[in-house]
């Protein structure tokens, strides 16, 4: 089937191809651009570039905020507690994280120049940096910790921005068999997070692991599933938000929802640049955060490839380079507003797959809501009313959807090949080690711990190395016995080359 017409990023219509972020042509899928989306999609506009009506734009954008909110506020909560911040400063750090996550998301979805993937790609505070930042705080003490952390984050962000056009060339080492493995690991590695939320979120919290908490998560899970089964059209696409609202209402009589955060929150607060002091630059801290940034770039690359498959717009080299530039720029600017490193939020990829709403402007609306939450702390406190068990019930659906997308990709990758079977089995095994035994790498060098502590990055590195071994090196490369697209080598003819700039 011949590709249908699609729109360019600037709104003009061009046949079959549309300029990518670097100005190169991006190959679009053969599937008609309007297929698979909700009714009303304009046949000449790719679903990624579709602008929904305002009510739908806001409500579906709010779903993305609900899905990522806990992930955005968790790192500043942990780091803030680690450096001994007061309640007021801790609230400021959380608001700053929401504000900078919104800016980073707008940069990714809308884009400027060669910056931004222009996909429904959510950016937020990277959890990969939490452990190194706590280590920095322990070394430098509470008073100097945040300036040193912010200085290291700025340098790491600049490194990411400059390295983006070179790092994105790794796309040829991410054929379908590697992509499917990594996408599956993204979902699997997030499922323990959902289970922990379902138990109450924090092991020290009252009622953690109680039947009330687990029952509330189960009710939310059933609500989301039933909404998907019984509702149709737009309301079906809001199934997650409806499930979250229903679960929160049930939480009040169970005593699992708390209005205290709303009562104590300020109505409005402008971000104060360098509130905790001017950035300080420490060599060891910079090296540590640069390693974290390499891990984040690996995960962002995998997430963009996964999202490209879900929305049926290929994440080619120019798109990956633009997305990584956005990660780097957002990370370098975040400390100015007291924020941390920015990277992809995999759980929102599951939401795109679940709702089948592929518009990047929906996610941009979510970015705008995040900015408002950062400027109006009282609004952010309302979102925080959603109890952790409710998020856990919905998270099982979200994260399971990501894993299912990875399995579907693997089914198309040629698993009849023994080499691919070994690649997938070993990579999944290595990726599940830090998920099953979180302290497995505690005795390893710090650089290894940083890389391998994440199941996503550990499995991704193993999958790329095994793909090199089986499909790029030695006899496997010379044999040519398997079709290129199914043996593990990416079909290079469809991947435009990004010019480093």
Concise synopsis of the structure shown:
It contains 19 helices and six strands.
Fold and architecture overview:
By secondary structure, the protein is mainly alpha-helical. It is 63% helix and 3% strand. The protein has a two-stranded antiparallel ribbon. A two-stranded antiparallel sheet has the order 3-4. The protein has a two-stranded antiparallel ribbon with strand order 5-6. The two termini are 36 Å apart.
Key descriptive features of the protein:
single chain; 501 residues; mainly alpha; two-stranded antiparallel ribbon; two-stranded antiparallel sheet; 19 helices; globular; disordered C terminus
Mean pLDDT: 80
Overall geometry: globular
Which class best fits the helix and strand makeup?
A: mainly alpha
Helical content band: 55-70%
Topology, pairings included?
Layout: E1 6-7, E2 13-14, E3 17-19, E4 25-27, H1 54-82, H2 87-110, E5 123-125, H3 130-167, H4 176-199, H5 211-230, H6 233-237, H7 239-254, H8 260-264, H9 283-311, H10 317-333, E6 342-344, H11 346-355, H12 360-375, H13 377-383, H14 388-411, H15 418-436, H16 446-452, H17 455-471, H18 475-479, H19 484-487
Helix pairs in contact: 1-2, 1-3, 1-12, 2-10, 2-12, 3-9, 3-10, 4-9, 4-14, 4-15, 4-17, 5-7, 5-14, 9-10, 9-11, 9-17, 11-14, 12-13, 15-17
């Amino acid at each position: 089937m011949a590709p249908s017409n699609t729109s360019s990023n600037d709104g003009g219509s061009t046949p079959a191809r549309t300029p990518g972020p670097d100005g190169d042509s991006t190959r679009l899928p053969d599937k008609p651009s309007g297929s698979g989306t909700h009714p009303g999609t304009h046949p000449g506009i790719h679903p990624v570039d579709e602008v929904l009506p305002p009510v739908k734009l806001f409500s579906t954008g709010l779903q993305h905020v609900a899905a990522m909110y806990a992930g955005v506020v968790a790192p500043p909560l942990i780091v803030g507690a680690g450096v001994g911040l007061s309640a007021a400063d801790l609230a400021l750090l959380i608001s700053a994280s929401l504000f900078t996550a919104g800016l980073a998301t707008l940069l990714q979805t809308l884009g400027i120049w060669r910056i931004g993937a222009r996909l429904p790609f959510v950016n937020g505070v990277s959890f990969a940096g939490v452990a190194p930042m706590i280590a920095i705080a322990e070394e430098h003490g509470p008073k100097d910790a945040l300036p040193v952390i912010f200085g290291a984050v700025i340098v790491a962000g600049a490194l990411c921005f400059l390295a983006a056009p070179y790092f994105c060339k790794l796309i040829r080492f991410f054929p379908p068999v590697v992509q499917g493995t990594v996408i599956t690991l993204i979902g699997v590695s997030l499922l323990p997070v959902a289970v922990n939320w379902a138990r109450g979120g924090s092991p020290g919290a009252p009622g953690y692991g109680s039947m009330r908490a687990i029952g509330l998560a189960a009710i939310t899970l059933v609500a989301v599933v039933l909404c998907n089964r019984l509702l149709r059209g737009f309301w079906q696409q809001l199934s997650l938000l409806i499930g979250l609202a229903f679960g929160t209402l049930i939480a009040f009589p169970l005593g699992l929802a708390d209005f205290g955060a709303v009562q104590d929150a300020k109505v409005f607060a402008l971000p104060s640049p360098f509130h905790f002091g001017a950035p300080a630059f420490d060599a060891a801290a910079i090296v540590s955060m640069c390693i974290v940034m390499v891990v984040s770039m690996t995960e962002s690359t995998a997430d963009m490839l996964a999202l490209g498959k879900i929305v049926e717009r290929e994440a080619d080299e120019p798109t990956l380079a633009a997305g990584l530039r956005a990660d780097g720029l957002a990370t370098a600017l975040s400390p100015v507003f007291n924020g941390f490193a920015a990277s992809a939020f995999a759980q929102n990829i599951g939401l795109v797959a679940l709702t089948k709403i592929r518009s990047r402007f929906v996610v941009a609306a979510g970015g705008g809501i995040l900015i408002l939450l950062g400027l109006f702390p009282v609004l952010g406190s309302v979102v925080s009313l959603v109890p952790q068990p409710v998020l856990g019930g919905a998270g099982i659906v979200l994260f399971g959807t990501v894993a299912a997308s990875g399995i579907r990709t693997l089914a198309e990758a040629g698993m009849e090949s023994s080499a691919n079977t070994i690649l997938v089995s070993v990579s999944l095994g290595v990726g599940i080690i830090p998920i099953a035994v979180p302290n497995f790498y505690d005795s390893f060098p710090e650089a290894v711990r940083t890389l391998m502590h994440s199941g996503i990055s550990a499995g991704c590195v193993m999958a790329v190395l095994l793909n090199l071994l089986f499909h790029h090196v030695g006899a496997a490369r010379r044999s040519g016995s398997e079709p290129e697209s199914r043996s593990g080598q990416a079909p290079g003819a469809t991947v435009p080359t990004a010019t480093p700039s």
